[in-house]
Design goal:
Helix content is 40%, strand content 15%. It is an alpha+beta fold. The chain folds into two domains: 157 residues, BsuBI/PstI restriction endonuclease, N-terminal domain (Arc Repressor Mutant, subunit A, Orthogonal Bundle); 158 residues, Trna Endonuclease, Chain: A, domain 1 (3-Layer(aba) Sandwich).
Length: 351
């Protein structure tokens, strides 16, 4: 007997629970195409150990008419039909044949296979048209229609702990911690031992990570010159340190969310940082305004760095704004604190 399977909508919904924000390549494994891929794999019974495998053609040739035929014989017949040259299901197929590459390369090889949810059959030539993919049994079990509520949540948690590597789990934990942060304020520990209180929300969580995680990783002797939050509310403004390094910070609309300084070099390094929870990266216009502000304070441009900080590079804010990031600036992600993306147009200053 073939395994039970839920509706396409239920598969789509469960994928978003199984792979939460912070999962590497999350878009590849939670989008519509991923739901169709998992649905079809379950439909034909392509689960490791069952001796049945599927290929992208099984996915893009599926149709609503075929999906409504749920008997074992109908499901087996579909598998047999698709294995034949020119095989098609009755009704309008779900996708054009040109979706073969995104299914194979993104959803499967860079998505489900990498994340331990699917396997690729060994010994099949690269040029072969034979089916080669199957879902891992533990992953397939998560789509059992009889598994619901707390039992489903626990099964998902157990699968993540076993299947995902430490890096993926760490990213998920960081993102979930930020998304779940509530209360009346967010406590931010400054390098000088003082504590800053910010309103709860993703922007505050990013700013907190910038000060507590980014600064000690990339600056040898970090200090906070300026922090603000929405509404141009200034939370801290360290005039004494600013004067000591020869810069005057005038509170105006051009100031970024955070200004850090590395006091270790002979000539200090000034770091302008924008926290992007939705929009507002350091683009060319923004960078130019910050350069002019620093120039007016007679601070040399070779001792300035520009950073746009995000929760995660797989999230919508980064994907939405990456093409607007200024050359000569950096991107940093809370979920991967040890990494730094440089948009180089010459030698950068964070080196």
């Amino acid at each position: 007997m073939l395994p039970p399977f839920p509706t396409w909508d239920e598969v789509h919904s469960r994928l978003k629970e199984i792979f939460p924000e912070g999962t590497p390549h999350r878009g590849y494994v939670t989008r519509d195409l991923a739901a169709s891929t998992v649905f079809v794999a379950l439909y034909v019974g392509a689960i490791e150990g069952a001796g049945i495998f599927f290929k992208p053609k099984h996915v893009y040739r599926m149709s609503d008419t075929q999906a409504e035929l749920t008997g074992d014989s109908d499901r087996a017949a579909y598998d047999a039909t698709i294995r034949k040259p020119g095989g098609r299901a009755p009704g309008q197929q779900w996708y054009e044949d040109t979706t073969r590459e995104p299914i194979r390369d993104e959803t499967l090889r860079e998505g489900l296979v990498v994340l331990g949810a699917a396997v690729e059959k060994l010994g099949v030539a690269t040029t072969s048209s034979k089916p080669r993919y199957a879902l891992k049994p533990e992953f397939a079990t998560l789509f059992d229609p009889a598994l619901t509520g707390d039992a489903l949540a626990q099964a998902i948690a157990d699968w993540r702990a076993k299947a995902l590597n430490k890096g993926a789990l760490a990213r998920i934990a960081l993102i979930r911690r930020g998304a779940a942060a509530g209360g009346d304020f967010v406590n931010v520990a400054l390098p000088n031992g003082q504590t800053l209180r910010m309103k709860p929300g993703p922007s505050s969580q990013i700013t907190k990570a910038v000060i507590e995680e980014f600064a000690p990783r990339f600056l040898k002797e970090p200090a906070v010159l300026f922090v603000s939050e929405s509404g141009n509310k200034i939370l801290t403004h360290q005039d004494e340190i600013a004067r000591a390094i020869g810069i005057s910070i005038q509170a105006d609309k051009n100031l970024p969310d955070t200004i850090l300084v590395d006091l270790d070099p002979v000539h200090p390094l000034l770091v302008f940082i924008e926290a992007v929870a939705t929009d507002g990266p350091i683009n060319e216009r923004r960078k130019l305004a910050l350069e002019e502000m620093a120039e007016a304070a007679e601070f040399p441009p070779e001792h300035i760095a520009y950073v746009t900080a995000y929760l995660d590079r797989s999230g919508a804010p980064f994907k939405k704004t990456v093409d607007a990031l200024a050359w000569g600036s950096y991107a940093w992600f809370v979920s991967e604190p040890d990494g730094l993306v440089e948009l180089t147009s010459g030698k950068g200053n964070l080196r």
